[in-house]
Amino acid sequence: MSLEPITPTQALEMYLADRESEVTKSTIRSHRSRLKPFLRWCNEKDIDNLNELTGRLLHEYRLWRREEGDINVVTEKTQMDTLRVFVRWLGTVDAVETDLHTKVLSPDLKSGDNVRTVMLEDEEAEELLSYLSKYQYASRAHVVVALMWHSMMRLGAIHSLDKPDYNSEEQYIRVVHRPDTDTPIKNGKDGERHVALTDFVCDIIDSWIADKRPDVTDEYGREPLITTTDGRAHLTTLRGDCYRSTRPCFYTGECPHDRTVDECVATDYGSESECPSSVSPHAFRRGGITHHLTNDVPKNVVSDRANVSTAVLDRHYDQRDEQEKMENRREYLDNI
């Protein structure tokens, strides 16, 4: 087999371009991010032609990544698995030996390694929503936080919503897969659903539309539900709303980490995630699901509402301990 020279950067761009027709934009972004450390390593090792790659070099990269990044086993596995896919692709374009990908080693996860437990707790959600209701009623952040907590939607679903998707009179909102106009949702058509809303959430959305929502359209002429003056609120903007609003100093005025609030880096715009107590959008979803289950909402109802299988719900989202689960089951024994 005759190998054809290619630089690491050229190879990555060719690989991502080749995958664009097969996977979503978010997957492309994830693969680019996961392979960036590999490009840094190639630069440090003066590897400007991937024909030079061997099994031993790939193992050296794995050790370097572990030491250089101080990463956990889940992150290591994710990045090495992505590297294996990339190296397999390199073999198809005569950049490396066709079986080299079999030498990309990845750690095995133990039970529980891939289960994250960070979530927004009930008390924190209630205190945050109380603060927003009093001081920032019907603001964009208020709408985002209320929807994330009560509907358990993924961030991509919140981003996809249009104003016509919301039915104030019947109190529900439609989640629709619209990939042709840049708002795909997870699970595609299978992720489409109607989500019932409470009086509390509807009141916030009604006030947002009537008084606060910038009346704009996106580049496709659609009317997004969550907007900025520039159009549909970007995913990064919505994610920032979650991190920003869950800093304790934001809704309590106090810092539990003994930081001087005025000097804290997490108070800078775009750096809100630097606060140890701020949480991601997924923590809203995990907390909301656990909240529903703890309050005796049947698992199949939560599964349908949140668009997650019961198996995945059990493994990744249900954060009740065994005592709480037992007490929840006890409620049903009175009828037997």
Write the topology of this structure.
Blueprint: H1 8-19, H2 25-44, H3 55-69, H4 73-92, H5 122-135, H6 140-151, H7 155-160, E1 166-167, E2 172-175, E3 193-196, H8 199-212, E4 227-228, E5 231-232, H9 235-245, H10 248-251, H11 281-294, H12 299-306, H13 310-317, H14 322-330
Antiparallel strand pairs: 1-2, 2-3, 4-5
Structure description:
The protein has helices spanning 8-19, 25-44, 55-69, 73-92, 122-135, 140-151, 155-160, 199-212, 235-245, 248-251, 281-294, 299-306, 310-317, 322-330, and strands at 166-167, 172-175, 193-196, 227-228, 231-232. 50% of the residues lie in helices and 4% in strands. The chain is built from 14 helices and five strands. Mean pLDDT is 85; it is low at 111-117. The chain folds into two domains: 8-103, DNA polymerase, domain 1 (Orthogonal Bundle); 122-287, Intergrase catalytic core (hpI Integrase, Chain A). The chain is mostly helical. The protein has a three-stranded antiparallel β-sheet with strand order 1-2-3. It has a two-stranded antiparallel ribbon with strand order 4-5. The longest helix has 20 residues, at 25-44. The radius of gyration is 23 Å and the shape is globular. Helix 5 (122-135) runs antiparallel to helix 6. It starts with 7 loop residues before the first helix and ends in a 6-residue tail after the last helix.
